[in-house]
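Design review, sub-item: ligand-bound model
Attendees: FS, YL, KQ
YL presented the inputs for the zinc ion complex:
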Amino acid sequence: MTGNFEFFNPTRIYFGENSISYLENELKKYGENVMLTYGGGSIKRNGIYDKVIEILKSAGKNIVEDPGVMPNPTVEKLTEGSAAARENNVDLILAVGGGSVCDYAKAVSISAYCDEDPWERYFVRMDDVTCKIIPVGCVLTMVGTGSEMNGGSVITNYEQKLKIGRDFDENVFPKFSVLDPVYTYSIPEYQMKAGIFDIMSHIIEQYFSGDDDNTSDYISEGLLRSLIHSSRIAVKNPTDYEARSNIMWTASLALNTLVAKGKTADWMVHMIGQSIGAFTDATHGMTLSAVSMAYYRMICPHGLEKFKRYAVNVWDVDPSGKTDEEIAFEGLDSMEAYMNEIGLVMRLKELGVTEDMFDGIADGSFIMDGGYKTLTHEEIVEVLRKSM
Ligand code: NZQ
Ligand code: ZN
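KQ shared the predicted structure:
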C-alpha cells in the first residue's frame, strides 16, 4: 500500500434470497414515520412494493409515499421530496429501487433540513452537511452504482445542463441495505447490461491510476475477473442466481471505497459520462461504455505498465514475444470484444449525442488529474468525436 488511509463502512448489508425478511427488525430502530421512496413503478409490477408495504404495516409504521423518482434524479424532484420529508416529520427514508432512488434518498436526507438551496450548497459548492440528517435504508432492485453501500449521490440540473455527483461522509451512507439477487431478475436487459458496465467502469477507473504495488489493485483484478465471468452467464440466462448474486456483490464492493484505499483514482470516464447524461438523459452505464474505448486508447501509452498488467491479469493476454505496447493494446482489444459480446452501447450517436453538443459536454466534464494523462478540453472533444 502506498498512501495512508482511514476505512470505515457503516452500511449493514443483508444479502441473499429472501433477505427482505430482515427489514422488520431494522425498522424497530426508527420512529414511526417512514417515507417509502421509489421510481416509476417497476416495484409495483414485480411484487416488491406489496412485500415492503406488508412489512411496513405489520411494523405499525405511518407510510409517506414518495413515488416517481426518475432515472437521473432532478433538482426539482429533490425539492419536492425534501419538503415532503420535512412536513411529514419523517424518521426513516426507505429507498426501494436502483441507484437513482438510493441517490435521491440520500440527497433528500440531507436537504430536508438544509436552510439554503441544497443544489448550490452540496453539489455546486461541495460544502459539508451541518443540518440534521434523516437516516436512509435501501432495498436494492437494480445493480450497478454501488449507491447501496456508499455516500455517493448524483443529481441532475437540466436547466444548467449539469449532472453532478459527489461523496458524502459516513453519516450519509445508508444505515442498511437489503440485497436480494432475485429482485434483479426483472431488470430490463438494457438496464442490466448498463449496470454491468457501470460496475466495470467503477473498478477500472480506480485501477488505472498510480503505479505502486497496491493490494487494492489486486482486489480489483479479482473483482473484474468475477464480473466478466458472471456477466457472460447473466446475459444468456438472467435468472442464473449464482451469476446475479456475484454481480450484485461485486457492484457493492466496486464502489464502497474498498478498492480506492491507499491509492489514487482516475474517474475521467465518469466525468465525461455524467456530462453526456446532463445533455441527453441517457442511461448512465451506456454513457460510460460509449466513450471508454476512445478514452483508454488515448491514455494507454501514458500508463503502459498498468495497461500491460491489465491485459495479462484480467484478459489473459499471452505476453510472450510481444512488445509492451502490443500487450497493452491487445488487452484493450479484448475488453472491446467483451463489450460487444455483452451488447453495450459503443457509439455516442445511439445515445442522442450530436456534434453540436461536444463543446458543452466537454465544458460540463470536470477535469480530473488522477489518471495517467490529464485531458485538455480539446482532448475531451476528441474522445467524444472518436466515440460517435
Ligand atoms: O423507476 P423504475 O420503474 O423503478 O424503473 C427503473 C429504471 O427505469 C428500472 N428498474 C430498477 N430495478 C428494476 C427495474 N425494472 C425492473 N425490475 C427491477 N428490479 O431500471 C431503470 C434504471 O434505474 P436507475 O435507478 O436509474 O439505475 P441505476 O441503478 O443505474 O442508477 C443510475 C443513477 O445512479 C447514478 C447515476 O449517475 C444515475 O443517476 N450513480 C450513482 C453512484 C453512486 N451513488 O455512487 C455512482 C454511479 O457512478 C452513478 O453515477
Ligand atoms: Zn457509475
